Records
---
Amino acid sequence: MMGLDLQPGDEVITPSFTYIATTAVIALLKLTPVFVEVDAQTFCIDPAAIRDAVTPKTKAIVPVHLYGQSAPMEEIMNIAREFSLYVIEDNAQAIGCDYIFNNGTKKKTGTVGTIGTTSFYPSKNLGAYGDGGALYTNDDQLAGKLKMIANHGQSKRYYHDLVGCNSRLDSIQAAILNEKLKHLDEYIEARRKAAGFYDKAFANCAKIKTPSRASYSNHVFHQYTLVLQSVNRSGLNEHLASKQIPSMIYYPVPGHKQKMFDSFNLPEVKLTTTDWLTERVISLPIHTELDEEQLAYITSSVLEYINQ
Ligand SMILES: Cc1ncc(COP(=O)(O)O)c(C=O)c1O
């Protein structure tokens, strides 16, 4: 957002149903976050809601490829073109995911918009051994500027042409990521296999809605997130915890209800789908090392609680 010269007061349209990092950067730069609704099936930003939220102050859209599936990028890019907006894809959870255009061509998520961002936090699909992240863009000039901003605004040592910060990727993390990158597709395959096991196990349970797959995306399963219907979610969470199975709520408080925005005097928004999902989602363990015995233990423990 610094690289795109966004200025205080500029509006950035983004989902509320995401990790706070998506919106915290907007707040840090004193831009105005405009929280919009997500689609109840895919958990990703709803293009119709974006269109309704555009004002003369809107400068950018930040779609989030939540849980490992792409937001509807073609529709988002059409809106961006119509209103001359930047698109910054939050690809923290979906590295390796394919967006499939109407004409059948594919692009990796994060490479469709103006800039893609990702996180190498250890639990991510491509995780480092500590913190890290990257930005990607097809615009060479912008890439040069972003590199400068991430390195104290310099391209030549000690000559600081721009206001920047230290956001360099640590060399040790980079070395690890260079090796792990070669295996990203295998990691994704392992996650998909676990997701397939869960899908099958819960297929006949009316109280559990398994993750839906959008026609325009594949899924890299950073998370495997269920939507519960008429189930006591905290009861299930406690039941699983008693059996040493971690389950998580991503996220218990949506962005538009976070206290950090109290001082922003944002207009009140009503995001009924976001609030509805916030009360019903629960994520089961998913990673590359789950074996069938563990998956069977997890699924039977979930069903044991739900069918009791
Ligand atoms: C959707 C989303 N955006 C942004 C981030 C931020 O990543 P980092 O903490 O590496 O900056 C995360 C990380 O958890 C995330 O899940």
---
Amino acid sequence: MKKWSACPSQYCLAVRRAGAGRGLFALEPIQKGASIIEYVGPTLAEEQWLNSRNRYLFKVTEKKTIDGWNKRNIARFINHSCRPNCVIKISKGRVFVVANRRIKPGEELAYHYGKEYFNLYIKPSGCRCLRCTPKKSAGRAARASDG
Ligand SMILES: [Zn+2]
């Protein structure tokens, strides 16, 4: 798994096995508000993404859609969460994953995929994010630290 480790910005991240397949994990503390990683890929023309069944398309604006299914785009491993620790920030047509709270080493990165995507791809099979399916062993501890 070590070959998947990457430091695209100032942060070290790693792809590891997660609740929903693979996920992207922080290997070091990340400050709230920090830009962690950019969602990168070729820009698709409208007729390309309209005909695509690719789930890694990221609609940046009405005119611009990024195809995230490429090796360089480690951000594609970030899973959906209903209570995420990251948010998406779009700046000048580029897509960044930004920490919306302090993230500890070993924590999985997640952001909310958006209502449209959620209803289309996640809801039908049931959401498997940490909030919707708390681990049995960690359930009590998580609830205790919630308040
Ligand atoms: Zn969920």
